[in-house]
Design brief:
single chain; 219 residues; mainly alpha; globular
Length: 219
């Protein structure tokens, strides 16, 4: 199963789960969804009519958390942390991942200093490790290339930093190769399903037609 298909299935799962809950019980659905390691789209869940039931209640802060994950960034959370529930580690990681994706979609270049500021990262090595291990390994091949192209590598580096930078580039190449192999394997399996199962073409096209993310920056 490719990343986009899995994303579409997760969105559908949590939309249905939200539709089956009422009132304060929706807060547990929001916590589960925003903590899920493979879910990166939240606008559809936010659009479920039941979610509006949280507005003006003791659980309204969870609705704000869902809005944050649908449209916001880590900086937005830091600016409003006093009004929001404290994020658990999985949520904090997810919001930082979404922040990188949003920045990559809305900026032609991503300087290191901007990324470090937006993610509360104190040094280049920590930033690069986060980008490789927590962002690029979790995204599609196209988005990986987009992130890599837009990141402006540090201009001034010591010999030790240059060695680490080379290691990072090598790891990026490994990730690209891994994603390419997986994509080729998925395409081959997809063709098998199309020719071996009735209705396979329609199911495949429906899954592929759903975008992985629908995020817009807060105005």
């Amino acid at each position: 199963m490719d990343i986009e298909q899995k994303q579409a299935e997760l969105i559908e799962y949590y939309v249905k789960k939200a539709e089956s809950h009422k009132g304060s019980s929706l807060s547990s659905v929001i916590l589960e969804a925003t903590s899920h390691p493979s879910l990166f789209a939240f606008s559809e869940i936010l659009a479920v009519p039941n979610m509006l039931e949280l507005q003006g209640t003791e659980s309204s802060a969870y609705l704000d958390v869902l809005r944050l994950f649908a449209h916001g960034t880590w900086s937005d959370y830091k600016s409003n942390a006093g009004c929001l529930p404290q994020l658990v580690p999985d949520q904090a990681l997810k919001l930082k991942q979404l922040t990188v994706l949003t920045l990559a979609e809305n900026n032609k270049v991503l300087p290191y200093d901007q990324l470090m500021h937006e993610l509360d990262v104190t040094n280049v090595r920590e930033l690069e490790d986060f980008l490789i291990n927590e962002c690029m390994l979790q995204t599609s091949a196209d988005l990986l290339i987009s992130i890599q192209e837009k990141i402006k590598w540090a201009d001034t580096m010591s010999e030790l930093d240059k060695k680490h930078h080379k290691e990072v580039e090598d790891r990026i190449d490994e990730v690209k190769k891994s994603l390419s192999i997986k994509a080729a394997d998925n395409d081959f399996r997809g063709h098998e399903e199309i020719y071996s199962e009735p209705g396979g073409v329609m199911d495949y096209e429906e899954d592929r037609s759903r975008p992985k993310r629908r995020r817009h920056p807060i105005s």
